[in-house]
Write a structure and sequence with these properties.
The protein has a single domain, classed as 3-Layer(aba) Sandwich (Rossmann fold). The model has no long low-confidence stretch (mean pLDDT about 90). It is of the alpha/beta class. About 30% of the residues lie in helices and about 20% in strands.
C-alpha cells in the first residue's frame, strides 16, 4: 500500500516543493480524528488481538519503489525523514512545532499516521511519500497563502508522476509486513 501526504516542513533544510520518502513515524497520540484509539485491536479479549512492534514502519521495497519513481519522473526526492502526525484541523503553534523538531520530525500533517499504524497491524506493507507545501510555524520564512495553494495544486500531478513510476517497480515477491505483530492468542 502506498500513501501520499501534503505536509509542512519542520526541518528547515526541507524547502517547500520537496518530496520526502519517510522512514520513521512520530504518532504519540495514536488516536483517530474522532478520538478513538487507532488500532484494529480495540476490544479486550478479541481473538487475534495483538501489539505491533516495529523498528521502521515503512516497507523497504515500497520505499525503494517510491524513490525510484520520483527520480524517474525527474523530481528531486529526500530519502528518509520522520513523518509527524498531529491532530487537526488547526495548524500547530510555534511551540508545538519546536517540540516536534526536537523529537526529530522532518515534516508534519494530519493524515498519514493512522494509515501506517493500521497497515502495520493488518500486516500490510506500507510506505508514504510527502510533499512539503509550506514551512510549519516559525521554522523558516512564512509561506504565503498563494504559494501554499499553488504547491497544494502542484502536488496532485507530482504524486501521480511518482506513483505511476513506483507501481511499475514494486516487486511483489519482496513485500512483507514491517515489524512483528505480537499476538495474544
Amino acid at each position: 500500500m502506498l500513501g501520499t501526504t501534503a505536509c509542512g516542513a519542520v526541518d528547515a533544510t526541507v524547502t517547500p516543493g520537496t518530496l520526502i520518502v519517510f522512514d520513521d513515524l512520530h504518532f504519540p497520540s495514536n488516536r483517530l480524528p474522532d478520538g478513538s484509539l487507532c488500532s484494529l485491536f480495540d476490544r479486550p479479549g478479541e481473538p487475534g488481538r495483538g501489539h505491533w512492534i516495529y523498528n521502521r514502519p515503512y516497507a523497504p521495497a515500497l520505499r525503494s519503489a517510491l524513490l525510484e519513481g520520483a527520480r524517474e519522473a525527474g523530481h528531486a526526492v529526500r530519502d528518509g525523514g520522520t513523518y509527524g502526525h498531529v491532530d487537526g484541523p488547526r495548524f500547530n503553534t510555534p511551540s508545538e512545532i519546536r517540540q516536534l523538531g526536537a523529537a526529530g520530525v522532518t515534516a508534519v500533517s494530519q493524515t498519514s499516521g493512522p494509515e501506517a499504524v493500521l497497515c502495520g497491524e493488518a500486516e500490510l506493507p506500507y510506505a508514504s511519500i510527502g510533499f512539503a507545501t509550506d514551512y510549519a510555524n516559525d521554522v523558516a520564512e512564512h509561506t504565503t497563502i498563494e504559494e501554499l495553494v499553488r504547491l497544494m495544486g502542484e502536488s496532485t500531478g507530482i504524486f501521480a508522476d511518482v506513483l505511476a513510476g513506483a507501481v511499475r517497480r514494486i516487486d511483489l515477491d519482496a513485500l512483507g509486513p514491517t515489524g512483528i505483530l505480537y499476538r495474544f492468542d
